[in-house]
Amino acid sequence: MSSDFTVRIVGMFVFSILGGYWGFWFSQGYSQPIGTYTLAWALVGALFGLIATPFFTTRPARALRSLFSRVSAEALLAGLMGLVTGLIIAALLTFPISLLPAPFGDVLPFVSVLLFSYFGVSLFVMRQTDLWNVIGSIGGRGGETLAGGTHGGRTILLDTSVIIDGRVADIARTGFLPGALLIPRFVLNELQYIADSPDSLRRQRGRRGMEVLSALQKEPNVSTRISDIDVEGVREVDDKLVILARQLKCPILTNDYNLNRVAELQGVTILNINELANSVKSVVLPGETLNVQVIQEGKESNQGVGYMEDGTMVVVEHGNRYINQTKHVVVTKVLQTAAGRMVFAKIEE
């Protein structure tokens, strides 16, 4: 039995009784038939209670629960602190304001409570990051936030693809991701779904993601949290991540190209691991000499392909004759593509 059905039944009985009382009073005041008016108003009250009761009981409660589920714990606590601060200031000003002549002395105390409560909540929520940094520095935690993040107080949302990729554990371990790594429950559910897939390759990828997540949680210098925060009315995980990132005003760590494009169109900051990997690769210039092992033929005739230590592909002209050999090559051109950086070279004479 749903909660809406229950409150409809209760509302039907309550409003039918109120309607009956109203009909009884109305019939006495205007000399109308008591039974007819009592029954008619009781039926009207029952119909009103059956239809309208959820709109001022369960529906607002569900909307508030949905709102609170989308708000972070830090924002909720900051808002509560701002509300208490505003009420204290309003209470201190109530007595001098009440001494004003009527009607100001009667109305302004109530108005001051509303205004200071609103400004207190707004101010504390807007400056919550600075607030937690100050509290953390006073507590001797070096600016650590309430959420368990590091200096800077930034929360970073993790996508399923970046957890499966696995490089996030090594990057976080080096300290290049300041802040708390946040994994929403719906991302974890998708990871579990992939790990339970009947396809062996998907199942292996999902289990690797579980191992990476477990390794992140065991790292003492990496703050990793799994949160039950969710986005109502949205089914796709990528859409939920984008909406959640906009609400929390935090970036998304991913290597998903489609999520990258969609998030950027909506003004969400993206931390792309593939772009990071490309940016930290070795920089080579035309004319430099490299020592490369040619391991296979290239797509074009007479080409050989080798790789630098950081994984950068090196295409060697006339290198097909030197497969499985290590040769000195001279860089002729460096090409940056969407897939990464490619280096073209020729055999050193």
Q: In summary, what is this structure?
A:
This protein is of the alpha/beta class and about 350 residues long. The chain has helices spanning about 5-30, 35-50, 60-70, 75-100, 105-125, 130-140, 160-165, 165-175, 185-195, 200-220, 235-250, 255-265, 275-280; strands at about 155-160, 180-185, 225, 250-255, 270, 290-295, 305, 315, 325-335, 340-345.
CATH arch. level architecture of the largest domain: 3-Layer(aba) Sandwich
**Percent strand:** 15-25%
Mean pLDDT: 83
SSE ordering: HHHHHHEHHEHHEHEHEHEEEEE
Number of DSSP E strands: 10
Could you tell me the CATH topology label of the largest domain: Rossmann fold
Low-confidence stretches: 140-152
Quick one: CATH class of the largest domain?
Alpha Beta
Count of helices? 13
Strand order of the largest sheet: 3-2-1-4-5
Q: How many individual domains?
A: 4
CATH superfamily of the largest domain: 5'-nuclease
Ends apart, CA distance between termini: 84 Å
Helical percent range? 40-55%
Q: Major β-sheet, in short?
A: 5 strands, parallel
Can you walk through the features of this model?
With 349 residues, the protein is an alpha/beta fold. It has 4 domains: 3-62, no CATH class; 71-126; 155-278, 3-Layer(aba) Sandwich (Rossmann fold); 289-347, OB fold (Dihydrolipoamide Acetyltransferase, E2P), CATH 2.40.50. It is 55% helix and 17% strand. The chain contains 13 helices and 10 strands. The strands form 2 sheets. It has a 5-stranded parallel beta sheet with strand order 3-2-1-4-5. Strands 6-7-8-10-9 form a 5-stranded mixed barrel. Helix 12 links the parallel strand 4 and strand 5 (270-272). Helix 4 (73-98) runs antiparallel to helix 5 and helix 8 (167-174) packs parallel to helix 10 (200-218). The longest helix is centred in the first third of the chain and has 27 residues, at 3-29. Mean pLDDT is 83; it is low at 140-152.
